[in-house]
Amino acid sequence: MIAELEQRIIYKKSLAGGKISVQNGNTLLFKRRQYEKLARAIGEELGIPAETTEVPLNEDVDILFLGSSVYAYGVDDHVKVFINDIHVNIGIVYNFSTAALIKSSYPQVNKLLLDKQICLATEEYACKGEFGPLHRGKPDARNLKEARKFARKMVNKYVNEHQI
Description:
Structural class: alpha/beta
Strand content: 25-35%
Radius of gyration: 15 Å
């Protein structure tokens, strides 16, 4: 059985001096090594670990990096449940994903978040993901470098826009 890792990486402001503290996440669902690679790359870049989407958000967050996958052109049920169970304020969500047959999970994730009135940034990170014989070795070192760069750029953008 194929397993994939759905993930979230959360940034939240601390009350002390406007600093950013971090919390983050990942959940085993479909192609574990693909999402684990991306999550670890993003986490390493931002200096944070990972949590599963099974762990609910219990406090407001500024930035949520949410990884997802698509099954038969639909977002995995675990991600749907995670999004549906959000009952805190989120400043912005950044989508990251791998996909073998489509560009990304962005349209599906956007619809789910819009239903909850949560903002999904227009920027996202998406790359090919290995699926059977397709896209062997993906995401690769170049993709991981791009994911790191994306995460850092989005955090810097948020910090600058919100004068943190």
